[in-house]
Amino acid sequence: MKESRRRKQALLGTTLALVVTFAASAAAFAKSDQKEPIVVGSILDATGPINIYGKPMIDSTKLAIDHINASGGVLGRKLKLVLYDGQSTNEKYTQFASQLALKDKAVVIMGGITSASREAMRPVINRTKTLYFYNEQYEGGVCDKYVFATGVVPSQQLLALIPWAIKRYGKKIYVPAADYNYGHISADWVKVYAKQFGGRVVASDFIPLDVSEFGSTINKIQDLKPDFILSLLVGGNHIAFYRQFYAAGLGKEIKIVSPTFGLGNEQVVLAPSEQKDLVVAYPYYQELETPANKAFKALWYKRYGKKYPYITDSAATVWTGWHLWAEAVKKAGKTDRDAVIKALESRITFNAPSGTVKLNGGSHHLTQNVSIAATNGKGGFRIISTAKAVPPAYENKVCDLIKNPNLHKQFTP
């Protein structure tokens, strides 16, 4: 009887020990699992002709990841960045988007610079159902459940520039544009807004990205005598247009406004005489005197030095994209795609370097400040005026992904 009792007690003790050991192991496993990094992905151009935009965006990506990690990470876990070089080729964007989604298991992908690179990735994003942020100024209209666009769009940017220029320079507009979807769709928007404000486009000239000789374009401008140029040119080769335009003496007669100039630090590359009084419109400028921008620049200069050429709007937009995603994950309490999308669609806000931004749940685009500015001849810009909290009016009108979550299209004018 006593022996039987002792055996039972020993068995009970062994069982309790196993339970305690299992519980401890489970707790240790859970704890270690929580410490596993969250894999996130980025594809931007470190090489090729589009790297004039890509380099500051890559710098901003690294800074944003380090800043989030230094602040405790997300949900107590560090972010592990997997960064690929798109090499300014759409084929690489498609390849690396698939690799990030399927092999690297990234919970979010951020990247793409040209609209062509974005559209090269979007079928992969939709097929793999991967959360994707496009952090760049673009022609607008993308309406896609898995896509969040943090860049400024025509209903914010061109709608600021065009009436401003018509009022000051005149009604006749000449449009040189990059020959791909960004240039063509944006040129259509120029026609829409020009007509709305009493102007007209006298000609549009679509120029391939590898062209750097603009003699025929300069001749057309001289023949047509527009009141101003609205430049939709993109990429390193197209910097030559400004140089040749001013060399021909046209800068004294005809002004240039642009929604793309400066994103590649053209204002740093060109001499002051090759960009005099050129007017742009963006949410972010290095010159903005906001507390958030001062803090952002302090981090930037600590990492990259005060001699950094210029912090572009694209770089600031990348910073905003990563922090919006991090805030949404914290709100969702997990990295699950659908939960994060729901958090993003709850009109989440962020105090960005450009000012407070608000994500519109239905359109997946930002309401944000937009400032008109002119080149200052010192590698930067002089801010002329700022419009606060400008909504993405067209996107909000045509796209409601809360009501119609299965949309995967791009609306155009």
Q: What class do helices, strands and sheet pairing give?
A: alpha/beta
Helical fraction = 40-55%
Percent range for β-strand residues: 15-25%
The backbone outline, from C-alpha atoms, is: globular
Describe the main β-sheet briefly. 9 strands, mixed
Please mark out the parts with pLDDT under 50 across 5 or more consecutive residues, or reply none.
1-33
Provide an overview of this structure.
This protein is of the alpha/beta class and 413 residues long. It is 44% helix and 21% strand. The chain contains 13 helices and 16 strands. Strands 7, 8, 9, 10, 11, 12, 13, 14 and 15 form a 9-stranded mixed sheet that branches. Strands 2-1-3-4-6 form a 5-stranded parallel sheet, with helices on both faces. Strand 12 and strand 13 form a beta hairpin. Helix 2 runs parallel beside helix 11, helix 3 packs parallel to helix 4 and helix 11 packs across helix 12. The longest helix is centred in the first third of the chain and has 34 residues. The N terminus is likely disordered.
Produce the secondary structure layout:
Elements: H1 2-35, E1 38-44, H2 51-70, E2 79-85, H3 90-103, E3 108-111, H4 115-128, E4 131-134, E5 142-144, E6 147-149, H5 158-169, E7 172-178, H6 181-196, E8 200-207, H7 215-224, E9 228-230, H8 239-247, E10 255-258, H9 266-269, E11 279-282, H10 291-304, H11 313-332, H12 337-344, E12 349-352, E13 355-360, E14 365-375, E15 381-390, H13 393-398, E16 408-410
Parallel strand pairs: 1-2, 1-3, 3-4, 4-6, 7-8, 7-9, 9-10, 10-11
Antiparallel strand pairs: 5-16, 11-14, 12-13, 13-14, 14-15
Helix pairs in contact: 2-11, 3-4, 5-6, 11-12
